[in-house]
């Protein structure tokens, strides 16, 4: 019965979003989404999300300097940099390589870079999280990934790439929205919105249990906590936050 209700409400949501489905069928939506809609949406969403998570991020990134290499440098790789919402939390003098599969964030990214000149920006790579071949193995001290694992094609492959590029003893920092408790109304609505939400918001999946992927990856230590971030009228809650050591 529950599954029948989910399918019915999914159809209702799809009906409301029919123009987008039609544009997708015609091959128009995806390029429009990547070039115009999603960068526009993400910049505004990041502003709201920042207010809600600023204290959590400050606490999360506080120990980044502990992962400096023996030479005293701190080399960071950010997967899915987007509009650069994390730059403000990085320690002065660190070197950052930015990556994103979508190259259309330049305008907002440059604004963030200009505001956060305490960071040294090494380069920007157009790359998916599952394929970071442009980054040498064992070459970075920390990898940062926030609100990205929801939309990569394969979480496990992305985590394998994270482990590859990290030096031994390096850390992977994450903040991600995940599936709600399966017995909750939140999860019920996540299942309903899932197909349309994924189409509209550039592959964002609402029901991934990313903590399981992290726990099953080959990290030597995972420090993870579940977090409640209140984002009214959105299905992207709850969250997980933490870091994992190679």
How would you explain this protein's 3D organization?
With 246 residues, the protein is of the alpha/beta class. It has one domain (1-84, 91-245): Vaccinia Virus protein VP39 (Rossmann fold). Helix content is 40%, strand content 21%. It is built from seven helices and seven strands, in the order αααββαββαβααββ. It has helices spanning 2-16, 18-25, 29-60, 106-115, 155-165, 185-200, 210-216, and strands spanning 75-79, 95-100, 120-126, 140-146, 166-177, 221-227, 239-245. Strands 3-2-1-4-5-7-6 form a seven-stranded mixed β-sheet, sandwiched between helices. β2 (95-100), α4 and β3 (120-126) form a beta-alpha-beta unit. α1 (2-16) runs parallel beside α6 (185-200). The longest helix is centred in the first third of the chain and has 32 residues, at 29-60. The protein starts with a helix and ends with a strand. GO terms for molecular function: S-adenosylmethionine-dependent methyltransferase activity.
